[in-house]
């Protein structure tokens, strides 16, 4: 029985699938059969007689019969059939081949086979040859069977049919040449046709309920083909057109199509995947998921065929614009790639697409760094800041972005591209993409004040029942610890809890103003994490500069915002950690794991430690610290923060013992440290009486802080009982 049920189920599923694939044909057949049945039913009931009697159809019938008799009484000349045959032969022999030659020339001009394919899809092109051939055959038939005069009924009907088809052929021929003229002279018409094809593909995917894999594969092919045709035309126009507005519109429309395409991921996720990925990888997915995962991890660009069809058009236009020195279009096509990356990085389900776009930008960056043109700054620096520091950026992708960003900067340092490094320093200090936020504590305090002002009793109730005030204070604390992905996730979870409490209790208050404050807090939290991450990246860059012996680059990082000879105090982003407390928190709570690939298997820990010690040494060599007594005072006043966890405290003694030998070796780098602006006459005192004493002082201070934390912890009664037993 199970075998029979399985067979029936498979058979029904197969019929349903075949029915869905041939839906229009089945609908036509069904309508035809239904029409025949209805007509037969009306005939049995003699409905036509009643309609004819009551609606006056008898008069209409008489008029039609008179008209038919008039045409049948007219005897057409047989000679016109020869003229029709000759005319149709001329169309077949001259007009159609000539038109196809014109289309072939158009395709050669754009170097695209898509134009010919698109032209052949027009209904005029499909119908005209059949109509011409049919009319010619009818004319030959009439000439073959009739010698001199058309006099019988079937001969007259055939003659009139030839004449009517001749008239129809002329109308169709006019439409044919009109369409040919549009293809030959109107580029915008061609683009509109191809963009309509793209829209139609996306609309069919969105509107249809179920689509077979074969149908989706065909839709994917049509989507890619239309995009390639658009790219062919826009590349040609880039090389030959001076009016950039035409190209700007085309790039904007491709971007709009990309947005519509990726919107399918939310509305039609299964269909979206089958359109995005190649048929090869989809076929491989079920039998070998591990193989698919491996391929997509290492070469996603080979299998995300729909995405690459979009990306390739931007790349082709960019390359053509560079070749013909059209800087505006080259910049705009590059920006479109970055905007596509920005849009995709807002959602959580675009891992492979993000990785593909990052690789494309990395390849472009490599090419441009060889040339060092005006786009090198965009491809090496601003692509990162313009995407990552958008409020809508999903921090899930941050490590992937970091890897490609720092890889590009390391190439700049390795190849000594000083001008590009200067642009990096300028961008990170003064970029408008990195918008400074208000103090987080002030925003939370502002929210608390607002809630009290709106409804004090409600705030008091929420504070008592949900501990709202305590949770806001805890949020403040977590916001100061945003260094890892886990920390930011924990902070955002607490924020969501606080947000739910506020929206629940303050339903009758000014929701718009509350939502504004909550959104500001959320954006501030994410910004703090991203900015802290940027500081860690710049620490990596500083360590890499030591590895590459580029102390002059470190000096640029340190002094750009506030040069030694500055006449004023300049604002900007401080991307270098400073002060003993800041450096202590930065280093001993570091989430290190450099995204830089160090050359020839070199390790990075030594250079991280060395750069950290140089930053500490800077604190003992600044203009306010001139004597050993000043240095000792600075060391004695330093206190380890109370919120440092016990794991960090217990590890400090080991870290310090490891750092002290490295610190003593800094005296051998006096020439390099002089490049950083250090006073080498005081270097030995600063190291021995400042830096090393500070490091040694951390051990007893950490032990004391750890003992204090252990004493303050509550004794677990459960653990005591377990110990006793």
What descriptors fit this protein?
mainly alpha; elongated; 725 residues
Structural description of this entry:
This protein has 725 residues and is an all-alpha fold. It is built from 33 helices and no strands. Helix 5 runs parallel beside helix 8 (153-185), helix 17 (351-371) packs parallel to helix 19 (398-414) and helix 29 packs parallel to helix 32 (683-712). The longest helix is centred in the C-terminal third of the chain and has 37 residues, at 511-547. The radius of gyration is 39 Å and the shape is elongated. The model has no long low-confidence stretch (mean pLDDT 78).
Q: Treating each run of at least 4 consecutive H or I residues as one helix, how many helices?
A: 33
Shape: elongated
| First-to-last CA distance | 62 Å
Overall pLDDT, averaged?
A: 78
Q: What characterizes the major β-sheet?
A: none
Structural class estimated from helices and strands = mainly alpha
Quaternary class: single chain
Spans of at least 5 consecutive residues whose pLDDT stays below 50 are none
| CA radius of gyration | 39 Å
What proportion strand?
A: under 5%
**Helicity, as a percent range:** over 70%
Quantity of strands, as a count: 0
Produce a short descriptive summary.
This protein has 33 helices and no strands. The protein has helices spanning 2-21, 23-44, 47-54, 57-73, 79-110, 114-120, 123-145, 153-185, 187-207, 213-240, 244-267, 269-276, 279-285, 289-298, 305-323, 327-344, 351-371, 376-388, 398-414, 418-430, 440-454, 456-466, 468-479, 485-505, 511-547, 551-559, 580-588, 605-619, 628-637, 646-664, 670-675, 683-712, 717-724.
